[in-house]
Specification:
This protein has 170 residues and is of the alpha+beta class. The protein has a single domain, classed as Alpha-Beta Plaits (2-Layer Sandwich), CATH 3.30.70. Helix content is 26%, strand content 29%. Catalyzes the conversion of (8S)-3',8-cyclo-7,8-dihydroguanosine 5'-triphosphate to cyclic pyranopterin monophosphate (cPMP). Pathway: Cofactor biosynthesis; molybdopterin biosynthesis. Pfam families: MoaC.
Length: 170
């Protein structure tokens, strides 16, 4: 009996299953996800001047995000375990607006993408900032967690159009 490969999370009886990617070609893949932490200008100044009592907020958030990316398959059901080749977490602080823009980039060479790893990394990094700063600003919010770009695989390059809200496959 020849098995037909279908890239779906549903088995023949409609139950959940991990997608079989064994027939997919390994390619270099990257995904970038972003998030926005909204707080007060005072909290941003505390972070910039290393005055947060729990420690170096951005260093801890960066490590937390990287660790989370590596454990994505343990957190997200049916997600493939991946041997990530690179994970970066970047922060842009704006004290005037009381904002921290976060960006997470994940890379792998494999048969499946790293979108979930990038989204998990940026989410956990933002949650870590929240945890470390909640005593300074209990109203701190985490917003706009989203995939910005992915490359590799059959679909090639996809990126979110920032001005129109539209999506693009190049």
């Amino acid at each position: 009996m020849t098995e037909s490969f279908s890239f779906t999370h549903l088995d023949p009886s409609g139950g959940a299953q991990m997608v079989d990617v064994s027939t997919k070609t390994s390619t270099s893949r990257e995904a970038i996800a972003t998030a926005l932490v909204q707080t007060t200008p005072e909290v941003i100044r505390h972070i910039e001047q290393a005055l947060v009592k729990k420690g170096d907020v951005l260093a801890v958030a960066r490590v937390a995000g990287i660790m989370a990316a590596k454990k994505t398959s343990e957190l997200i059901p049916l997600c493939h375990p991946l041997a990530l080749t690179k994970v970066t977490i970047d922060f842009t602080l704006d004290a005037t607006l009381g904002r921290i823009a976060l960006s997470a980039s994940c890379r792998v060479t494999g048969p499946t993408g790293v979108e979930m790893e990038a989204l998990t990394a940026v989410s956990v990094a933002a949650l870590t900032i929240h945890d470390m700063c909640k005593a300074l600003d209990p109203r701190l919010t985490i917003n706009q967690i989203q995939l910005q770009q992915k490359t590799g695989g059959k679909s090639g390059l996809w990126h979110r159009e920032s001005n129109t809200g539209a999506d693009s496959n190049d």
